[in-house]
Design brief:
Order of helices and strands: HHHHHHHH
Strand content: under 5%
Largest sheet: none
Shape: globular
Structural class: mainly alpha
Radius of gyration: 18 Å
Number of helices: 8
Length: 187
């Protein structure tokens, strides 16, 4: 029970820190150009995030984690979308649309399979990683690493942030940003 609570706290703090870091980066960029309203807007957004995490019930009390065989599809979705986006030259939106549309047909293979019903969300989480610009995501190995980390985040956050839109994109963003930071430290 304690292990599950620790994992939950870790995931909430990770998402909160990533969002605050992202907002801080935006505010810093706007602040350098002397835009006081941008700084004030970012401060209000940060306060809203904090109050949302603190007072809105975003979680179930039951601890569950997504199946590892579902999560394997996150980096696969990321790599497929990246190949269509960068190597195929289709662009991020069209690549995401194609990958997501194909993934949406997975449950039709066997309508009684609970496993196949979970694949479109996992693949689409990977699509958000694969949509990243080639300037941000420089190689297929980077995409696979970010997709794998996003998959781990998705697995651990199954019962977190329920009913809140944007979970898959936030999880994908977390995977990309952390791998970007590690990549920056290594190179």
């Amino acid at each position: 029970m304690r292990k599950h609570k620790t994992i939950r706290i870790f995931m909430v703090l990770t998402v909160l820190l990533i969002q605050v870091a992202f907002l801080t980066t935006i505010a810093k960029e706007k602040f350098e150009s002397g835009n006081f309203m941008a700084l004030l807007s970012m401060l209000l957004l940060a306060m809203t995030l904090f109050l949302g995490y603190r007072y809105i019930d975003l979680h179930h009390e039951k601890y569950e984690y997504e199946n590892i065989w579902v999560i394997v599809w996150v980096p696969i979705g990321a790599v497929v979308c990246y190949l269509l986006n960068v190597m195929g030259g289709l662009g991020s939106v069209l690549s995401a649309g194609i990958t997501g549309t194909v993934a949406s047909f997975a449950p039709e293979i066997n309508r009684e399979s609970n496993y196949l019903k979970k694949l479109p969300a996992a693949i689409y989480c990977g699509v958000f990683v694969g949509m990243s610009s080639a300037e941000i995501v420089p190689s297929i190995g980077f995409v696979a690493a970010a997709g794998t980390l996003a998959g781990v985040f998705l697995m651990l956050s199954k019962n977190l942030f329920l009913g809140i839109g944007g979970k898959l994109g936030t999880v994908a963003f977390g995977g990309v940003i952390i791998v970007s930071l590690l990549y920056g430290l290594i190179t």
